[in-house]
């Protein structure tokens, strides 16, 4: 015997003497006996070492068993990447058991980020043409799971060929594989079009299911395919009708319903096909009504079908009666014991409340009952939906329920609930007294959780309600007796007592029984607020100012007031000390001016310059409501009026506004910068009359003298753009350029895009900057933001920054979307340094 033969015999004898590796089942049993993680890790490491040795020795006998064990360890979270090439060897094997483990390993251990997977392409192509359907199925599953774009391009023809085969087992797998191919390489979609049309004629439910999935993917990715497949709506309706009317079939029955999975898929496809199309919607109205009325609701399977039916009805152009039926189904869901079903119902009703308000109102009592649910997610959805249902007809009843909820809810709900009550009360209050009582109730219940603007808003409301001054100050005085825990309430009370303390002492309240209060008792309360440990610095400032105001309203306690004010002239609180020192100076040097300086605040008027009327959204009661307007003055205005936009970023100084003459818009909607807080008087010179622009201390025109020279600096092209706003499908991007002649000028171009399915109309972008900047807002390119990101609105902002300070900006966005007026505020602080340095 030759030397080579003897060596082969020796190796064979050695391999035969080696113990066979343990089976997968034994490995699982051994690992489960581990008492600690360290013990388990030791077992895994030992077995991995044995598997590595086997791989190095090219042991074909037990390769399949070793890879199976490796996959189990991979599922436990241990590294198994060293088995990737062994998977490829198993795939190349002729044995089905080897191929099965090899393909499973490839799907778990490989992905398109690793170049190793490209070595599989030829093996998959051979197996797609294999004579055994199960081997073809393995190849289709693997390609559909982890095929890269390169593999999909190479093998798309084989997949399309299998879509046309008569074997239903292969057709359903090929359809799912085609979905993956389309996702990776959308341009190959047309290749599968002829084969896809015939799939809906198949009787096999598996093929039907996968073909509907394939159709859905194609319609979602291509508007052309969507238009092409709309003619299949009658065929899909017929398939769905057969499913509903067919008798018991043990092969497809789930809890008494025939193939609910296929029904749900067809309903989703119908929703896509019927969206924004009258003919398709009309063709599916009857079958949707049939599904909605005939589906059994006692089991969760039926509820799933009904939920998909409701979504489809709401998304297509369905009849009004059908929409009411859908909302009634959601109303029944609210009575279900399953929390998930109740949550889904509340979420769906919240989406439809603006379009079908009256139908949702019928379920108001059930929605309010959900506020008492133990599940916090359901509570939050019920709270949001309750606020959406508030209107002028039910404001009293709904506020009663929401105030009760505010009193008993968890702390994380109080802030949102208080804000919602404030907004609803401001919009639908039946009377000023009711409005004041409601806000005071909120401040008493959850004063520490209200927004920062609650105090000034309530003060403004009280100031404007002249006939309610005596009633309000008496109620607030009672509310804070001995309880200073709710700081916003104490601040409002201190302000009102300072303004209307004389009405409190005189006992002139007609709305309720007056109380007898002396001047000393009133001062006792305010002094208690000053020394209370619960009082914040802001609250103490309110109290000290109130005491000072009472020096002109009270006659017997002026000396006591002087003493209190002088004491706080040495306070460690700088703000309080400054106030006290200034008030002391009023008493000593300017006593003759004190009464005039501390006289009662005048009524604060809300004035808008956005046209004579506005549409007030009243949750089902939309009507035009006149707004207060002032006629524009005929002559030039002082700079303090033309620039009446307060610094919204934290200061009290005025930011100059540079008016712009519009080219095509009427003067009433021109270059005025509207009040970003909604309640400031911004009456300014009309943009059509440049002669009335006020003479400012700073240059009146931002880019004066730049028109004859190149406008932008080439070196500014490297300034990165930013996303200033992204919410509810609306995205605002800022791009930057620097002026070529004036480095202090930054030109910002905004681009507004809309990713939702409907256009955003009447779009208005507004901006404000701190007092150290000047801002010029040019006219936008349009007022409509097209849907599906098919276009953008552009608008130019020019900012003069002579001191090279960090740029900050407050923006306000208003637009109409889906029939609702939308408004939002945002602050932009992430400007790149290159834009302002």
Structure description:
- With 837 residues, the chain is an alpha+beta fold.
- Among the domains are: 452-598, no CATH class; 722-835.
- It is 52% helix and 9% strand.
- It is built from 34 helices and twelve strands.
- The strands form four sheets. Strands 5-6-7-10-9 form a five-stranded antiparallel sheet, with no helix packed on it.
- Strand 6 and strand 7 form a beta hairpin.
- Helix 22 packs parallel to helix 24 and helix 24 packs antiparallel against helix 25 (432-446).
- It is elongated, with a radius of gyration of 37 Å.
- The model is unreliable at 607-618 and 622-716 (pLDDT under 50).
- It is found in: Cytoplasm, Perinuclear region; Cytoplasmic vesicle, Clathrin-coated vesicle membrane; Golgi apparatus; Membrane, Coated pit.
- One of its GO terms (cellular component) is recycling endosome.
Shape: elongated
- Are there runs of 5+ residues with pLDDT below 50, and where? 607-618, 622-716
Radius of gyration: 37 Å
**What is the helix tally?**
34
Strand content: 5-15%
Number of DSSP E strands:
12
- Main sheet summary: 5 strands, antiparallel
What structural category arises from helix and sheet content? alpha+beta
Termini separation comes to 88 Å
GO molecular function: GTP-dependent protein binding; kinesin binding; small GTPase binding
Pfam family, one: Adaptin_N
Main location: cytoplasm
GO biological process, one term: endosome to melanosome transport
């Amino acid at each position: 015997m030759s030397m080579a033969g003897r060596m082969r015999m020796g190796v064979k004898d050695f391999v035969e003497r080696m113990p066979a590796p343990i089976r997968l089942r034994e490995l699982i049993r051994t690992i489960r006996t581990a008492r600690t993680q360290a013990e388990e890790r030791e077992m895994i490491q030992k077995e991995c070492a044995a598997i590595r040795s086997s791989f190095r020795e090219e042991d074909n006998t037990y390769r399949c068993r070793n890879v199976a064990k490796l996959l189990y360890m991979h599922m436990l979270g241990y590294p198994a990447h060293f088995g990737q090439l062994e998977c490829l060897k198993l795939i190349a094997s002729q044995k089905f058991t080897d191929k099965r483990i090899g393909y499973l390993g490839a799907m778990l251990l490989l992905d398109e980020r690793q170049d190793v997977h490209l070595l599989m392409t030829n093996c998959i192509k051979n197996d797609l043409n294999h004579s055994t359907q199960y081997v073809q199925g393995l190849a289709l599953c693997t390609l559909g799971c982890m095929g890269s774009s390169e593999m999909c391009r190479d093998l798309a023809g084989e997949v399309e060929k299998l879509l046309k085969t008569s074997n239903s087992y292969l057709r359903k797998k090929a359809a799912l594989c085609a979905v993956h191919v389309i996702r990776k390489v959308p341009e190959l979609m047309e290749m599968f079009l002829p084969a896809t049309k015939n799939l809906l004629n198949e009787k096999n439910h598996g093929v039907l299911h996968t073909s509907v999935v394939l159709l859905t993917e194609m319609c979602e990715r291509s508007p052309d395919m969507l238009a092409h497949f709309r003619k299949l709506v009658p065929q899909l309706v017929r398939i769905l009708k057969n499913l509903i009317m067919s008798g018991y079939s043990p092969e497809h029955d789930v809890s008494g319903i025939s193939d609910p999975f296929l029904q749900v898929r067809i309903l989703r496809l119908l929703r896509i096909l019927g969206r924004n199309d009258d003919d398709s919607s009309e063709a599916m109205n009857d079958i949707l009504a049939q599904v909605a009325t005939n589906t059994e609701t006692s089991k969760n399977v039926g509820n799933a079908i009904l939920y998909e039916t409701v979504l489809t009805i709401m998304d297509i152009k369905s009849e009004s009666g059908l929409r009411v039926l859908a909302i009634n189904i959601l109303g029944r869901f609210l009575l279900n014991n399953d929390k998930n079903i109740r949550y889904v119902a509340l979420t769906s009703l919240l989406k439809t409340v603006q379009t079908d308000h009256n139908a949702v109102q019928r379920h108001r009592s059930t929605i309010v009952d959900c506020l008492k649910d133990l599940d916090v997610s359901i509570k939050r959805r019920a709270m949001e939906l309750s606020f959406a249902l508030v209107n002028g007809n039910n404001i009293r009843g709904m506020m009663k329920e929401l105030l009760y909820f505010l009193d008993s809810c968890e702390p994380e709900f109080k802030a949102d609930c208080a804000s919602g009550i404030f907004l609803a009360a401001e919009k639908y209050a039946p009377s000023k007294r009711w409005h004041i009582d409601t806000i005071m109730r909120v401040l008493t219940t959850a004063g520490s959780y209200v927004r920062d603007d609650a105090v000034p808003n309530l003060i403004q409301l009280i100031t404007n309600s002249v006939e309610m001054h005596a009633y309000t100050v008496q109620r607030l005085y009672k509310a804070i007796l001995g309880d200073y825990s709710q700081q916003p309430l104490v601040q409002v009370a201190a302000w009102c007592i300072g303004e209307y303390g004389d009405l409190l002492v005189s006992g002139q309240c007609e709305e309720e029984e007056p109380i007898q209060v002396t001047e000393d008792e009133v001062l006792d309360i305010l002094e208690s607020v000053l020394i209370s440990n619960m009082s914040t610095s802001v609250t103490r400032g309110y109290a000290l100012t109130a005491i000072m105001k009472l020096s002109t309203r009270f006659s017997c306690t002026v000396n006591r007031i002087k003493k209190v004010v002088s004491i706080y002239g040495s306070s460690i609180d700088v703000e309080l000390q400054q106030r006290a020192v200034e008030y002391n100076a009023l008493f000593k040097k300017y006593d003759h001016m004190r009464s005039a300086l501390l006289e009662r605040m005048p009524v604060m008027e809300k004035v808008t310059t956005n046209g004579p009327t506005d549409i007030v959204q009243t949750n089902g009661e939309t009507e035009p409501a006149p707004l207060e307007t002032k006629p524009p003055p005929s002559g030039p205005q002082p700079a303090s009026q033309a620039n009446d936009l307060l610094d919204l970023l934290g200061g009290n100084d005025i930011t100059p506004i540079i008016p712009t003459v519009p080219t095509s818009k009427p003067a009433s909607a021109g270059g005025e910068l509207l009040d970003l807080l909604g309640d400031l008087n911004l009456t300014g010179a009309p943009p059509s009359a440049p002669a009335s622009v006020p003479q400012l201390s700073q240059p009146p025109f931002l880019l004066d003298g730049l028109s004859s020279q190149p406008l932008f600096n080439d070196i500014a092209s490297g300034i990165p753009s930013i996303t200033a706003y992204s919410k509810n499908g609306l995205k605002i991007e800022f791009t930057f350029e620097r002026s070529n002649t004036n480095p202090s000028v930054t030109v910002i171009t905004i681009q507004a895009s809309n990713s939702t399915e409907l256009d955003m109309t009447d779009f208005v972008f507004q901006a404000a900057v701190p007092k150290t900047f000047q801002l010029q807002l040019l006219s936008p390119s349009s007022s409509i933001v097209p849907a599906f990101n098919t276009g953008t609105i552009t608008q130019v902002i020019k900012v003069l920054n002579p001191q090279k300070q960090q740029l900050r900006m407050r923006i306000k966005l208003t637009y109409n979307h889906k029939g609702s007026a939308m408004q939002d505020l945002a602050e932009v602080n992430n400007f790149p340094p290159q834009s302002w340095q």
